[in-house]
Structure formats: C-alpha cells, structure tokens
Specification:
- With 482 residues, this protein is of the alpha+beta class.
- The protein is globular and about 65 Å long.
- It has 18 helices and 24 strands.
- It is 38% helix and 22% strand.
- Helix 12 packs antiparallel against helix 14, helix 13 packs across helix 14 and helix 14 (363-387) crosses helix 15 (405-415).
- The strands form eight sheets. Strands 1, 2, 3, 5, 13, 14 and 15 form a seven-stranded mixed beta sheet that branches. A five-stranded mixed beta sheet has the order 18-19-17-16-22. It has a two-stranded antiparallel ribbon with strand order 4-7.
- The longest helix has 25 residues, at 363-387.
Length: 482
C-alpha cells in the first residue's frame, strides 16, 4: 500500500508517495507565491494551495499511475497560524494572513490584557503571527470578512476540505489559534470570547491520526486511485517534520532549517514557557507534547542577503565555508532577525543588527555572519527550552538548510551535540504526513509507525577548533541591541 504526504508550505507545495516501510518512492513540487502588500504584511490566496496541490497529483497520476493505483491513505502537513475564513459555500472571504505577518502587534497587547495568563494556557504569549490577534485586527480593519465567515479553519484544513468535502481541524493546528486550552487539547470558551470568536463557527476537533473523511470520488477517478482512500486529519508542519524523523517520544527532537527555523522537542508533560516565547502544544503523537523554540527567519535570512547581493543562497553558503578557514574571530557578528524574534525574546518588532563590519569584509564574511547568527538564535532557543524542563536528548536536522554542513556544524558546536542528518530530511514533513495517513489505516500500530526513523545520511560533530571563539561571539550576539 502507498500513502501520500502533502506538505502545504509557505514557499511551495510538495507531495511524496511513501510505502508501508517508510521508503519515499517519488515526489513532486510546485512553487507558491507570497503577497506582501506593504512592509510587515505577508499573505496568500488559499485557492493557490488547492490549485498547486491538484497540479502535483495530476503529475503523479500521469508519471506514476502504478503507485497511485495502490494509494490507501493521504494526509497533510501545513504551515500554521494563518486564518482561513470560509463562507457557507466554503469560499474564502479574505486572503490568509501568514505566520510571519506583523500587522497585529497592537492586538497582541490587547489580547494579553484580556487574558493575562493566556501564555500558560495556550501555546505561548500573543504574537502577531498567531491566529487570534489576526481576528482582532480584522474586526477593526475589515469586519465584513468576519461577518461573511461561516467557519474558521487553518491552511491545510482548507486543502483537506477540497479533497474530502468535510470540515475539520486537529489539535496541533488548533493550538496555534490561541483559542485552544493546550493542557486539555480542547476549545476554551474564555479564550474564544477574548478573541471575538464563537464555538459555532469552528470545525470539529480531531487527533492528527484520526480519519477525517475519504478522497472524493471525482478525485479518485481523475487520479486513478482506489475508490476508498482514507484522508487523515494531519498536523502542522513542525509536528509532521518531527514525526518524519521519528521524533514522537520524549527526548527526541528535530531541528528544522527552512524559511523559519524550529527546534521541536518531544515532551511527556506540558511545560509552558511563555516568558521565553517557547511554544508548547499537544503533539501529533499520542499522549505527548511538543516544545518549539522558533527562529523567525532561518533560510529566509540567507535568501534576503542573496537578493541584496545579486547572488544565490547556495553560492553564499559556499563562500561562507571558505572564509571560515581563515578564522572567525575578526568576522562580523549579527542578529539576522529580518522578520523579528520569537524565542526567547518575543520581539516581533525586532530588526536585523550587524556589528564589526569593515571595508575588508565582503559577501563571504557577511554570509558567514548571517548563518552564524541564525545558529546562535537556535542556541538561545535551546537554552530556553532546557531551562523550562524540556528533555532534549537527541537532535536530528531537517529542512533545506540541513544540506549545509557548515550550518549544522556551527549549530552542533554551539549545542555541544552531534547532530545526525537523515536521508530525505528535506521531505520530513511529507513523510510525517504519510505516516499519519498510515496510522489512520492501522490504528493498532500508531506508536510504532510514528516512531519509525529515517536512515542517517551523515553525522555532524561539534567543531572543537571553533568552541572558544563561538562562545565569545555568542555573548556578543546576545548583547546586540535590536
């Protein structure tokens, strides 16, 4: 049997076909567009996700009909926190405001004033990327889209609705709404009231591995699948990324270097740490929680520099590797927070800061400073999570940035920990979603399926020759004003 994992990412859509042993047989992808109407805003048209998903499955149906004929289940991973407001005909009433949008900063303070202990009940302190502040912003600036909305859903939920015809969400995505009590994994009426929303306009709440409908017959015929394909509820992208490498048990962690960066650590207990901007929610694996230390701009920081210098991110990473050989003590130090800072400072208004730039520094040195700055933000998140009682015994690196041995080497040195890089780690969210699809069809094997690991491609050890310099530079990094 084959299982499809669909990853609804900010920058693109990926679909992977995975077998029962966890082997990925094929993938397809499409790039997606982000609208930035003005500085600090970031949004997407929900229908774009559906159009690109259909294109991916059309390609698979054409290129891999044998695999599609064996499809038994499907599930989704998706970027989180964006509000998808649908009318009674399931049409979006407004664009989806994304996780890195900053327009609702004022509303965060208002929400915190209404519920002073909200950070200890939900996934963390109010942040403009989270859903509830966006609803408060829309109530002030575009109330008509709220009045016309019949239901609030999350990004991947909209794609699943188009696949099945059923409205639903699940606990991991719901946790990012700030309307879910994370300890009990249930909607909270007091939080709903503070957010200006009501329970009647929320979808049913499922577990990530629960069946959430079946693939519509029109899609089955179009894509050449069996007539009964189970569609599991799915999970947020960080949860699926963690599950993709088997991070389903306490102590296991996944370090994702994508557009944003997240250190996702599995915990057996609910350890909220709102004062450090650590996000803590129910995990997609049974009876566990996921602690997330968030770096708002990871590969996005390098992409920003690439655009500024007329280069590309891969070339910049190679240049940075070369300049490190001459020694890092005299290189610039940075906080490359081009979209603010979450963990541990909770400063969405923060801007990027560089120190120590001279006329002798060029693209290579600035690229190194950016990559090092991102690594140091991971270190700050790691320290915050450990200080909150979260167990982090082993870390695997995933995401596009994990292809850079320099980046992982700096992080491994700062964390003083060997970091394995698994095969297909860049597809971990798709693979995690496929696992949830398999779990929905084999409910008696859920724990074993979700704990299955990927083969390790390489192991990156701390770079001993950099320890002293990096520790000194980390103190300078943390002292930079923003």
């Amino acid at each position: 049997m084959i299982f499809a994992g669909v990853d609804i990412g900010t920058s693109g859509i990926k679909v992977a076909l995975v077998d029962e042993e966890g082997t990925c047989h094929t993938t397809v992808a499409r790039r997606s567009h982000v609208d930035i109407p003005q500085p600090g805003w970031s949004q997407q048209d929900p229908d774009q996700w559906w159009t690109l998903t259909v294109e991916c499955f059309d390609e698979l149906a054409s290129a891999q009909p044998g695999l599609m004929a064996r499809l038994g289940g499907l599930s989704l991973s998706g970027h989180m926190l964006g509000q998808v407001l649908l009318d009674r005909d399931n049409r979006p009433t407004t664009p989806c405001i994304l996780w890195n949008d900053q327009r609702a900063i004022v509303e965060c303070a208002e929400l915190l004033d209404r519920v002073p202990d909200i950070g200890w009940r939900t996934n963390g302190q109010p942040d403009p990327g989270l859903t509830a502040p966006k609803l408060l912003w829309l109530a002030k600036h575009d109330p008509d889209v709220l009045d016309r909305a019949d239901i609030l859903m999350l990004p991947k939920d909209y794609v699943r609705l188009r696949l099945t015809g059923d409205r639903a969400t699940e606990v991991t995505d719901a946790a990012g709404s700030m309307m879910l009590d994370c300890a009990s994994a249930s909607w909270d009426d007091a939080l709903l009231t503070a957010s200006g929303w009501d329970r009647a306009r929320l979808p049913k709440l499922l577990k990530s591995f629960d069946p959430a409908g079946q693939l519509r017959q029109t899609h089955c015929r179009r894509w050449g699948t069996p007539s009964t394909v189970v569609v599991a509820a799915g999970a947020g992208d960080n949860y699926c990324g963690a599950l993709g490498v088997g991070a389903s048990r306490p102590g296991r962690a996944a370090l994702s270097i994508g557009t944003s960066g997240v250190l996702s650590a599995v915990d057996s207990m609910f350890h909220p740490a709102p004062e450090k901007a650590v996000l803590t929610t129910p995990h997609a694996a049974p009876e566990t929680f996921l602690s997330m230390g968030v770096v708002m701009a990871a590969t996005q920081s390098l992409d920003w520099l690439a655009g500024l210098t007329g280069s590309d991110a891969v070339r910049l990473a190679h240049l940075a590797e070369a300049c490190i050989e001459a020694g890092i003590a005299s290189l610039p130090v940075s906080r490359p927070s081009v979209t603010g800072i979450r963990t541990p400072d909770n400063r969405p208004d923060a801007t990027a800061v560089f120190a120590g730039i001279t006329a002798g520094h060029g693209r290579a040195e600035i690229a190194y400073a950016v990559m090092e700055g991102v690594a140091m933000q991971f270190r700050a998140a790691y320290d915050a999570q450990l200080g909150s009682g979260v167990p982090v015994n082993e870390i695997q690196a995933i995401g596009g940035g994990a292809q850079s041995s320099l980046w992982i080497g700096i992080i491994a040195t700062l964390l003083n920990s060997e970091i394995p890089v698994p095969e297909n780690g860049d597809l971990s969210a798709c693979i995690g979603a496929a696992k949830l699809a398999q779990a929905a069809t084999h409910p008696d094997e859920i724990s074993c399926i979700l704990a299955r690991r990927l083969p390790v491609k390489t192991r990156i050890s701390p770079r001993r020759e950099l320890i002293a310099d990096l520790e000194e530079r980390y103190l300078r990094h943390r002292a930079l004003a923003f």
